Amino acid sequence: MKIDYKKDMHPKYLLLTLSIMCVILLILSVFMKNSLSPVRDGLSKVISPLQKGVNEIGLWVEEKLEVFGDIKDLKEENERLKKEIKVSEEKLARNEAELTELQCLRDLYSLDQMYPDYHKKAARVFSVNVSGWFAEFYIDKGLNDGVYEDCNVLSDSGLIGIVEESYADHAKVRAIIDDHSNITAEIGSKGTLCTVEGSLKTMADGYIYAKDIDKNASIKVGDRVITSSVSDRYLYGLTIGYVSEITDDTNNLTKTAKIIPAEDFTDIKDVLVITDRKKEVSY
User: Fold this and answer.
1) What is the model's pLDDT at position 191?
2) So what's the pLDDT on residue 282?
């Protein structure tokens, strides 16, 4: 019958047996030192490599634990830096927006100084009707601010439009590039009369037309185009744009000029509304 010692031997007997064996080995090591030398040497040859291997494994594990610790620290540092970068980017974006707004205000101030004889009110664009072009847009000033129908509207470089409709706290502006815009203007150093017509189609190529220019008029590329004193709705001397090309008309009586508007009509944020309006003459 096979005895299952693991099952049948009581733990206390196993402990007692091991204790006795330890005592015996201790006595033998004292009284039989020379006789046990081969045993010690043999065990040493077996145990030393094992101990060395265990030490190397321990060092390897320690190094890996250090690496894992470094990786954890790096991850935490990376997350911290990401948060700092995000905060810095947000701060930079705010600063850029503030600088842009400051530059707009400076431009408007400079523009204000160009027309000191007119009373003006600063306003901001909050809506646009035509996608891609500021041909018809709304500003955040209206009747309560002294902004009425036919008030001329300026931006950084000159005239951009006229108030078509005004309400209590906002107004609708029609830009000079709109298809329905028509302005009596002057061109060149001698103030030759012409008619500036808006056109979104030609604005796709960056210009609008000045028409009905006398064929003998002394004008050239680069000449400034301004609102005329005989215009029925626009105040005198507001910059519309500059001549980029001149062609003779087929009627042999007039010529036409391409006008590059002074303002960029793809992005308008802040404007000046001239609260003075053209005086109507009664007959």
Assistant:
1) 92
2) 47
The angle subtended at Cα 251 by Cα 245 and Cα 253, nearest 5°, is: 75
Tell me, letter by letter, the H, E, C secondary structure of 91-130. HHHHHHHHHHHHHHHHHHHHHHHHCCCCCEEEEEEEEECC
CB 244 within 8 A of CB 258: yes
Helix runs in the chain, H state only: 5-8, 11-31, 37-114, 200-203
The phi-psi region of residue 257 (left if phi > 0; otherwise alpha if psi is between -120 and 50; otherwise beta) is beta
Taking alpha carbons only, the member of 246, 227, 175, 177 closest to residue 205 is 177
- Residue-level pLDDT at 9: 57
**Neighbouring-strand partners of residue 174:** 136, 162
Q: Pick from 275, 277, 276, 270: which is nearest to 140 by CA?
A: 270
What tokens does 269 get?
Answer: 């944020």
Provide CB contacts within 8 A for 107, sequence distance 6+: 156
Residue 66: its pLDDT value, please? 67
Q: How does DSSP assign 221-241, residue by residue? A: TT-EEEE-TT-SSS-TT-EEE
Mean pLDDT of the residues in the chain: 81
Highest mean pLDDT among 5-9, 16-20, 246-250: 246-250
Residue 67 confidence (pLDDT) above 60: yes
Phi-psi region of 252 (alpha: psi -120 to 50; beta: other; left: phi over 0): left
Cβ-Cβ contacts under 8 Å for 152 (sequence gap 6 or more): 159, 161, 162, 163, 227, 233, 234, 235, 238, 273, 274, 277
Structure confidence by residue, pLDDT tens digits, 29-49: 656 655 555 655 655 555 566
